[in-house]
Amino acid sequence: MDAGGWRFAVHADSPKGRQLADVPRAALTFYWPLQGRQVRVRGAVEPASPEQSAADLLARAPSARAEALLGRQSGHLESLDDRDQAFRTALARIEADPSLVSPEWTLYTLVPVQIEFWQADKDRVHTRLRYERSGRRGPWETHMLWP
Ligand SMILES: Cc1cc2nc3c(=O)[nH]c(=O)nc-3n(C[C@H](O)[C@H](O)[C@H](O)COP(=O)(O)O)c2cc1C
């Protein structure tokens, strides 16, 4: 997270990756059940350049880069042996070529237009506060919300 927004990365050839390419909007939810707190961030998502996405992947551990090479995320897996064999092959490719990146790895930035804070109450009289703006450069407004 920085002034530009919240960053996360996905495999473009996954259900989530295809959904974000199709409808470039997302919500992020951070939930602390013991404190009864939640922060929800909503806005448009923007893909980084291939070079920035590659740099994001190269900064990760070899095992994470090998996993990205597997592809087919969320597709049906026939056996754990198939997974382990594919992972070993991908790791060997990474070790042979440390600059190898999965071209489907996509870094996204979520540019927030709404950030909502929820404080739960044991009697369900919850306190909610939302920061919102009409566009990425608009001024932030703050509103309390009905629970
Ligand atoms: C601790 C943890 C971290 C995760 N980090 C990511 C991540 O950075 N990117 C990602 O695409 N999925 C991540 N996932 C997996 C997602 O929750 C999700 O299962 C996966 O992306 C497949 O979603 P899809 O089938 O909707 O594409 C993470 C899961 C856990 C438990």
From TrEMBL:
Spell out the InterPro entries in the cross-references: Pyridox_Oxase, Pyridox_Oxase_CS, Pyridox_Oxase_N, Pyridoxamine_oxidase_dimer_C, Split_barrel_FMN-bd
* PROSITE patterns registered for this protein in UniProt: PYRIDOX_OXIDASE
Describe the location of the Pyridoxamine 5'-phosphate oxidase N-terminal domain by residue ranges.
2-76
Q: Which residues form the Pyridoxine 5'-phosphate oxidase dimerisation C-terminal domain?
A: 105-147
What keywords are annotated for this sequence in UniProt?
Flavoprotein, FMN, Oxidoreductase
- This protein's source sits in the domain of life called Bacteria
What SUPFAM superfamilies does UniProt report for this protein, alphabetically? FMN-binding split barrel (SSF50475)
- State a single Gene Ontology molecular function: FMN binding
Gene3D superfamilies (alphabetical): Electron Transport, Fmn-binding Protein, Chain A
Known cofactor(s): FMN
One GO BP annotation of this record: pyridoxine biosynthetic process
**PANTHER family, sorted:** PYRIDOXINE-5'-PHOSPHATE OXIDASE (PTHR10851:SF0), PYRIDOXINE-5-PHOSPHATE OXIDASE (PTHR10851)
Q: Which family would the database say this protein is a member of? A: Belongs to the pyridoxamine 5'-phosphate oxidase family.
Task: Write the protein's name.
Answer: Pyridoxamine 5'-phosphate oxidase
Q: Which organism is it from?
A: Actinoallomurus iriomotensis
